[in-house]
Amino acid sequence: MFICIFKMENSQKIELINYLIQFISENRKQRFDEVIAQRTNHLHIVLENIYQAHNASAVLRSAESFGIQNVHFIENRNSLKISDDVAMGSSNWLNIHRYNTSDNNTEQALLLLKQQGYKIVATTPHTNACTIDKLPVNNKLALVFGTEIDGVSETVMKMADEFVKIPMYGFTESFNVSVCAALCMYELTTRIRQTVPNHLLSEIEQANVYFNWLKTSIKNSDGLIANYLQKNSL
To answer: What are the chain's domains?
Structure first.
């Protein structure tokens, strides 16, 4: 049950959450409570220059299904579009970060993640990388995927703290990026949940995500919030 946010201090956002909850069904609230309780911020997914909408959208769908909350789109060459048919609405429940305004969006994104305490992990079959099942998960991780043709950029290779690959035993050199991402996410989230204490969202993080979910789910949520703020002078 999602109870912890209601025991926090009486902040504006918590008051708004308590107010907005009345506009969703009990079943929807119960589902929100179940899902938020399993969300993790220990693993972030980073997609660099992925130009095929169906691949990126499939990665979003997998990330959401595995309880990963944050996905980063680095758009140096390609402006990424989400395919609703493939993503199945998963983008509504994720924090999606886009980097497309800098001369080097990759460097900007990875520096920000490093500042937040994340180890940068590049997925590549072309180096002496460890296999995904051997990657330590005790530290916070940002897993970076590049294009199927070129892989991750030289900037990623230079800034990465770790390099990983998926063992392959056939003639084909690499998996489709969405398949690769799904396999990596399954492996890492399974071990994170089994071995890493405090891998779930903090109370503040839960409140922020829950608030955004409510806004997404409620028709004219901005109007309801504006009226509430006006009446209560928050």
So the answer is: 43-195 (3.40.1280.10), 202-234 (no CATH)
